[in-house]
Amino acid sequence: MLDLGYVREHLDAIEKMARDRGITLDLAPFREIDAKRRELIRMVEALKATRNKESHAIGILVGGAEALGDSPDSKVQKALAIEKIQIMKGISDDIKAQDVTINDLDERLKQFLLTVPNIPHASVPVGKSAADNVEVRRWGAPPKFDFKPRPHWEIGEGAGILDFQAAVKIAGARFAVYKGLGARLERALANFFLDLHTREHGYTEILPPFLVNTASLTGVGQLPKFAADMFHIEGTDLWLTPTSEVELTSLHRDETLDADKLPEKVCAWTACFRSEAGAAGKDTRGIKRQHQFQKVELFKFTRPEQSYDELELLVKNVEVVLQRLGLHYRVMLLCTADMGFASAKTYDIEVWLPSSGDFMEISSCSNTEAFQARRSGIRCKQKAGKSEFVHTLNGSGLAVGRTWIAIAENFQQADGSILIPEVLRPYMGVDRIPPAST
Q1: Are 342 and 226 in contact (CB under 8 A)?
Q2: What's 277's DSSP letter?
Q3: Distances in whole angstroms, Cα of residue 394 to Cα of each of 47, 82, 388, 404
Q4: Residues 228 and 275 in one domain
Q5: CB count, 10 Å around CB of 90?
Q6: Please, is 156 exposed, middle or buried when counting C-beta atoms within 10 Å of its C-beta (0-12, 13-18, 19+)?
Q7: Is residue 407 in some structural domain?
Q8: Rounded distance between C-alpha atoms, residue 304 and residue 392, angstroms
Q9: In a domain, 123, yes or no
């Protein structure tokens, strides 16, 4: 969430942000509510000044009456005091009523701010679509085949390690059942990711709940905007987590951290659940876009001045995973129109898929600056200095299912088998997944 004072004083910057992001943002309600709120505050301040003046006058009248004893003048002053007390009571009632209205307007402003996306960093290219994203670098090269490479769903079904029909019977479309070495590959990838990030990159592993409450989702910016993309547990305040970014952010919700101990780096493996309400007809084959998938998330709490250096390190952490696996990839800097709601700057890491002859997003690394921290009430404080909102960063390190796809396609063999990258062989116990016929 953006700072109310900033929005109020920089409406031109907010309008530019909306244009750059390619969204429609009607600021008229904000202007109207804010103007009404300011006018009411001025009225309340005037009423409070009158109340203070009347209270002072009442004190003088009461003191004077007591000094005059039981004289006629004393009775007159007491009567005047009582009259002013009644006037003051009316003023106090007016102040209370206006305070209620102001609180209501404050809540309406807050609800409006919850729908406003983050402002892109100055280094983010302005663009109208994903076509305007900027390639930063590439690593490796596409594998060469002496046969036509097959898509991962054909490879998986051919090897007997991926079963979509069983998943349909169990849960419906956009689910998958992994079998045998296919299931082991999914587990091996998750373990490899966690071991690498905790042992070499300095992240602390977290195993959080897979159910999250409304406050947690609101804190990261998933609610209210993306309610249709998630699964809600009827009759409760709980939702199936769409990403463990939600849980990791909420580890410190409404807390003040020691600035000297930042950055704090955590990671988590979880299942993730998404309704894909806005993705009808997209990537319906295979496991690329599922209602349930597994992911290892990387997350950082940083001081504001260190967050962009930490973003570059976050991207490097993700790149190491792909390099160890021997997968060709590229790093893309997203333009303003292709960034996420909460992000100030995002890099997508995309892996090569031979079957399509194109790249597929496998990780998205973002700096949200203070956007999530302000919504979640997460601050940091140095020993000598005032507290300030932390910056939060997140990235997939990696999406397990999409890495499964990349390995199946890039390491497929003519006989239908899949070679296992060397770094995964200790986790798998085999050097290849054979075709189903052998």
Answers
A1: no
A2: T
A3: 48, 63, 20, 21
A4: yes
A5: 12
A6: buried
A7: yes
A8: 9
A9: no
pLDDT by residue (tens digit) across 285-320? Answer: 899 999 999 999 999 999 999 999 999 999 999 999
Long-range Cβ pairs for the range 344-349 (8 Å, 24+): 344/118, 344/119, 344/120, 344/121, 344/124, 344/368, 344/369, 344/371, 345/120, 345/121, 345/123, 345/124, 345/308, 345/311, 347/136, 347/311, 347/315, 348/133, 349/315, 349/318, 349/319, 349/322
- Gap between the Cα atoms of 420 and 428, Å rounded: 8
Domain that holds residue 422: 130-433
CA distance 1 to 282: 30
- Domain presence at residue 138: yes
Question: Could you say which of 57, 85, 113 is where a domain stops?
Answer: 113
Look at residues 84, 113, 142 and tell me which one is the last residue of a structural domain: 113
Q: Are residues 215 and 253 in the same domain?
A: yes
Mean pLDDT of the chain: 93
Q: What is the mean pLDDT of residues 261-265?
A: 97
Does the pTM exceed 0.85?
yes
Note whether 340 and 199 are same-domain residues. yes
- Residue 121 forms part of a structural domain: no
If one counts every other C-beta atom within 10 angstroms of the C-beta of residue 205, the result is: 13
**How far apart are alpha carbons 374 and 86 in whole angstroms?**
43
Note whether 345 and 273 are same-domain residues: yes
- From residue 16, how far is each of 1, 25, 336 by CA, in Å? 17, 10, 11
Token pair of 28 as six digits: 């008229």
Same domain, 109 and 252: no
Interatomic CA distance for residues 179 and 433, integer angstroms = 12
- pLDDT (tens digit per residue) in 206-257: 999 999 999 999 999 999 999 999 999 999 999 999 999 999 999 999 999 9
Helix (H), strand (E) at residue 119: none
- Residue type, position 330, single letter: R
| Same domain, yes or no: 56 and 167 | no
Q: Are residues 227 and 351 in the same domain?
A: yes
Q: Which of 235, 1, 217 is nearest to 115 (CA)?
A: 1
Name the token pair of 376. 């979640």
> Could you tell me which residues come within 8 angstroms of residue 217 by beta carbon, excluding any fewer than 6 positions away?
223, 230, 239, 246
Query: Residue 69 has what DSSP assignment?
Result: T
Tell me the pLDDT band of 92, cut-offs 50, 70 and 90.
Answer: confident
What DSSP designation does 240 have?
Answer: E
How many domains in the chain? Answer: 2
Residue 56 banded pLDDT, cuts 50, 70, 90: confident
Residues 92 and 209 in one domain: no
